[in-house]
Amino acid sequence: MSSILIVDDQPGMRRTLEILLRKEGFEAVSVESGEHIVELLREFKPEVVITDLKMEPLSGIDVLREVKKHAPETIVMIMTAYGTIDSAVEAMRLGAFDYITKPFKNNEIVLKVKKALERNALVSEVQRLRRDVDPIFGAHPLVAESPAMKAILEQVKKIATTPLTVLITGETGTGKTQIAKAIHYNSPRARGQFVSINVAAVPEPLLESELFGHEKGAFTGAIHSRKGLFEEAHHGTLFLDEIGTLSANLQSKLMGVLQEREIRRVGANRAIPIDVRIIAATNSDLEEAVVRGEFRRDLFYRLNVARIRMPPLRERREDIVPLVRWFLSVLSQRMGKNYHITSEALDLLLKYDYPGNIRELQNALEWATAVASGPALEPENLPESIRLGRPAPGPSAGIHEPRTLDEHEKQLIIATIARCRGNLAEVAKVLNIGRTTLWRKMRDYGIEKKPHGRP
């Protein structure tokens, strides 16, 4: 069910639009002003915002700017009187999808909303196709030179055509998310959404609402109804990473979803049917968790219908060279250089055991390109753990080598800031992240931008 937010200071207009759109099968919510638009976007997650142009204290243009700033994928439509069409056209230049003149015909507004949603669906499909062909959109490709990975890709091809629930196991950094995406995009559900969540990363009090959604007033702060990830993944795939960390309460609720194929929002009286494929992943031993009483036996069997075990990188060394080539091609494209690795450095990469698996290999190459003086990556550019052939802490002073993935990221940001002479826009571009994300990471890691670009 598509969700629409109506912003208008006239109660009669809000009510008219709510009734009309709900009759057409849309989920419609209305508010009298855009003062709390950011909270509304986060809580309600509308696909379309219909806003009046002339309002106080925030105008429709102000609402448009806030929506495009905080939820750029959300479609905005402007309502205007006949005398203000010029303003509406200006709003379209700022990113509005269309305008609706008052008074309007019912079928006109319904057609415009449907057209907007069709456009959104087309954009999503284009983005999906780009993810399939553009290496910048993925963490790494499904390289399969090794017998182990060739066997897994054969499994993926067979499993993708079925509706089976899938459990992917393996160490951290082995590529479980990429396998889940491969299953989705090669399945009959490929046109649906691939929605993923690391359940271990969301605090327990918030996770139920994140998964199942909530109704207005369900708890303090629930000022509007909100769809959960199960609803967002309707006709698609929901990927639940770190499934072994799920609480007993949510294990029970997930079991109910798998049995009944319906969900109930927090605070709701009615159930909502869903059509979602579940793919779960874990880096822990779920069988052992079942024995210890920490994971439901019946849920384990429900998830473990089709199982894929991702081998660690040390068990698929034939894939290291093509992975290195791929990562360097992406880094070269991102930084505008033609990076290559010397045979001596490559030899060290081939001998290392990678406790962090593919993610550690990727981080090592990003580190090497950040500290290298030219396009050739030498042994001295690699982290000390790889040069020594075993995980080891680096020195404690200056721009030292990383001891953890977080430490690696921090030092990579520091090195890139120095390399870009403090130009944070360039730093964000080189690291392939948004400027807001860069500022947040600098704040979290305590990195200060000092004069002359030195953090």
Protein architecture, described:
GO terms for molecular function: ATP binding; sequence-specific DNA binding. Residues 3-117 form the Response regulatory domain. Residues 142-370 form the Sigma-54 factor interaction domain. The modification 4-aspartylphosphate is found at residue 52. This protein has three domains: 3-129, Rossmann fold; 144-311, Rossmann fold (3-Layer(aba) Sandwich); 314-453, Helicase, Ruva Protein, domain 3 (Orthogonal Bundle). Helices cover 46% and strands 13% of the residues. The chain is built from 19 helices and 14 strands. It has helices at 11-23, 37-44, 60-70, 85-93, 106-133, 147-160, 176-185, 204-212, 229-232, 248-260, 286-291, 297-303, 320-335, 343-351, 357-371, 384-388, 405-419, 424-431, 435-445; strands spanning 3-7, 27-31, 48-52, 75-81, 98-102, 166-169, 194-198, 237-241, 262-263, 272-273, 277-282, 306-309, 340-341, 376-377. The strands form four sheets. A five-stranded parallel β-sheet has the order 2-1-3-4-5, with helices on both faces. The longest helix is centred in the N-terminal third of the chain and has 28 residues, at 106-133. Residues 133-139, 392-403 and 451-455 have low confidence and may be disordered.
